[in-house]
Amino acid sequence: MVDEIVKRFPGIGCGYIQKNGTAKYAFHGAADRESHSQVDEHTIFPACSISKFITAICIMKLSEQGVIEIDQPVNSYLSRWKLLDLNGDESNVSIRHILEHTSGIVDGEDGFYGHRLTDQAIGLVEILEGSTTYNNLPALVRQSPGTVFEYSDAGFCVLQLMLEEVFGKEFADLAEELVFAVLGLKDIFFGTREKIRFFSRKGNLATGYKGDDSPIEGKYPINPDLAASGLWSSPAELMVIARDFIDSFNGRGRILGQESVREMMKPVENFPWVGLGLFKYGEDTIVSKGWGENGQCMLKINCKDSSAAVVMTNKDPEVAQEESGVEWLLNHI
Questions:
Q1: Cβ within 8 Å of residue 315, ≥6 positions away
Q2: pTM of the predicted model, to two decimals?
Q3: Mean per-residue pLDDT of the chain
Q4: What is the distance between the alpha carbons of residues 136 and 281, in angstroms, rounded to a whole number?
Q5: 133-137 — which CB contacts under 8 Å span 24+ positions?
Q6: Burial per residue of 120-131, b for 16 or more beta-carbon CB atoms within 10 angstroms, e otherwise
Q7: SS3 assignment, position 158
Q8: How confident is the model at residue 22 (pLDDT cuts 50, 70, 90)?
Q9: What dihedral do alpha carbons 261, 265, 268, 272 form, nearest 10°?
Q10: At what angle do helices 235-249 and 258-265 cross, to 10 degrees?
Q11: To the nearest 5 percent, what fractions of the chain are helix, strand and coil?
């Protein structure tokens, strides 16, 4: 089965933390087929929507510090742009609603992909206003908050704008300060133009491939919605974060306190498979999935037995993780 799955992707990087705490890794195939560069421990893959898990960690850390309150309306922290409902009134949607995808914000179809370094830069407010081809639907609260689950990249754009306004700094720098630097991580980052250029010059970014196995234009897409889908990482760096999340669950983590992690894992009323910036697989296991035009990935953390796994690839397989083999690799290696 492993060989069959490996053939479906140009390159795969896997990381595992076993119940006894031992970490192991597996690497397959090409980071870049054209240059014959092989995947190794230094290859950095697109983490796509695993970004939302990291964003939630940042928000919970700031909640611990008393900087923000997740049950307050997100509009209370916004000034340049406000989240409105269909009547044009300011919404009372909370930060928590957005983290659990029950805000009532609905994404447009076929949005949030296709942007390149050579394209004109897009700002967060432009994305939220729906004024570009990257996202052509204004971010509005279209359904009653808390009543419907609606997965939303635009919602996490709202959170990104909130964080940047509160701190007066780029979201990528804030995540570096709150998470990556604390854990001593070097091969994980939110993909600003500067970061993509820097790591591409280093030569360890995985080239993205389409479903037909041809490389995407420009090799590396750029996601201005960083908090939703702009994360890049090696499998090993994500395993460090997973280990610290487990440690926090047990009251000894470096990033979050035990109460914050358990709050993230608490099932949402009426939507028991949802937590804050993550999804639940049973009582003690959480998952975060990523899927973009240049890769597909999946992270799983079991806080009860202290195990974790991540599978990262550099191709859009055009089917979900359950069908592509990514989830099978996550559970069987």
A1: 8, 9, 10, 11, 208, 209, 210, 211, 213, 294, 295, 296
A2: 0.97
A3: 96
A4: 33
A5: 134/224, 135/107, 135/108, 135/111, 135/225, 136/108, 136/111, 137/106, 137/107, 137/108, 137/109, 137/111
A6: eebebeebbebe
A7: helix
A8: very high
A9: 180
A10: 100
A11: 30, 20, 45
Beta bridge partners, 297, equal 290, 312
For 163, other C-beta atoms within 10 Å of its C-beta total: 23
Q: Rounded CA gap, 253 and 137, in Å? A: 40
Among residues 273, 302, 271, which one has the least CA distance to residue 285? Answer: 302
Distances (CA, A) of 282 to 16, 73, 80, 96, 156: 19, 30, 40, 21, 25
64 burial (CB, 10 Å; 0-12 / 13-18 / 19+) is middle
Quote the pLDDT of residue 113: 84
Handedness of CA 258, 263, 264, 266 (dihedral sign): positive
CA distance 70 to 162: 12
Separation CA 280–CA 288 (nearest Å) = 9
| Burial of 224 from C-beta contacts in 10 A (0-12 / 13-18 / 19+) | buried
Q: Answer whether 293's CB lies under 8 Å from 216's CB.
A: yes
Q: pLDDT over 90 for what percent of the chain? A: 93
- CB–CB of 162/103 below 8 Å? no
What pLDDT digit, counting tens, does each position of 94-135 carry? Answer: 999 999 999 999 998 877 888 999 999 999 999 999 999 899
How distant, in Å, are the alpha carbons of 48, 117, 157, 191 from that of 200? 17, 12, 25, 11
